[in-house]
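Section 5: illustrative case.
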């Protein structure tokens, strides 16, 4: 093991081993912007879909917990979530030849 590092070129910098911080910051910033845009679209969903999405994804509730809060069956909440996600996907859909960036885009 020690021989491996002895024969490594001395010119190797610590920064060669570390990920590019600028890329991580940029990716994090883009992700945050995408999420903000997505939640703005959620706000335009029909009321029941909006509540289901908010409970499930913003408040991190299970479908069963969201159903209890909404006074609906778990199946009804799952259907609301399915329809909400389908609607959001159609609103953020990208052309087939464009690079996929959205969290809801299907690869």
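Designed sequence:
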């Amino acid at each position: 093991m020690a021989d491996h590092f002895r024969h490594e070129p001395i010119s190797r910098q610590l920064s060669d081993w570390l990920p590019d911080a600028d890329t991580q910051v940029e990716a994090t910033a883009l992700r945050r912007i995408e999420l903000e845009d997505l939640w703005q679209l959620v706000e335009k969903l029909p009321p029941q879909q909006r509540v289901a999405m908010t409970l499930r994804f913003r408040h991190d509730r299970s479908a069963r917990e969201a159903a209890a809060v909404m006074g609906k069956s778990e199946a009804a909440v799952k259907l609301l979530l399915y329809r909400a996600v389908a609607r959001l996907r159609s609103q953020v859909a990208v052309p087939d030849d464009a690079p996929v960036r959205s969290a809801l885009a299907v690869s």
